[in-house]
Amino acid sequence: MAALEPGPGRTRPTRSETRRRILDAAFTVFGERGIAASKLTEVAAAAGLTKGAVYSSFASKDELVLALMEEHAAHRLEASLAGFAEAGDGGVGLGCVAAVLMHEMRTDAVWHRLLAEFFALAHHDEHRRDALKLRRREVRTTIARALERLAEGFDLELPLPPREFAVILLALSNGLAVESDIDDEAVPDDLLGRVLTLIAGEAVAKVRSAAESITEQ
Prior knowledge:
With 217 residues, the chain is an all-alpha fold. The chain contains 10 helices and no strands.
């Protein structure tokens, strides 16, 4: 399939726009077919690009998968946790913080299935294991920094070092997402929030109280 040519008066997509199209297409293709059963030609077709265009942004299917999962884990959580800083006096951003901490980290089962599949594929492949380890370290670092900003913004002390708390958040959200995907009735919407309250106590209670006060206004 030939890459889409820009029409009259239109310019070719930028490198970042091309990357975005590839990631969006990869999510659709991998989510529908699974990682192992998918080909980069299918991702390219879904993105309206050539296979060469995909390879110009990602050296391999593994790199594309890792980039996709890293973007999801880091961007969504960090953006929400960091939102309070942009809200200033605790407006919409604070509501985003509470929403992520209490409800949103397990809602998209596709991402967790992709992580589980890639983890299984990496079990017998040292190169994949090392690549996954490196990307997950980067994700945990991003989340840990967001947690540090959260603690500073609310003037509270985290119950664990930020890097360890990041591991807990990832493990809980991934595990609950898997259980929910198996049996959605087994995981109440507020379960993650209740578990975090047991772990973080005052810290989570403070975030929840602030979010509830905003909702009531």
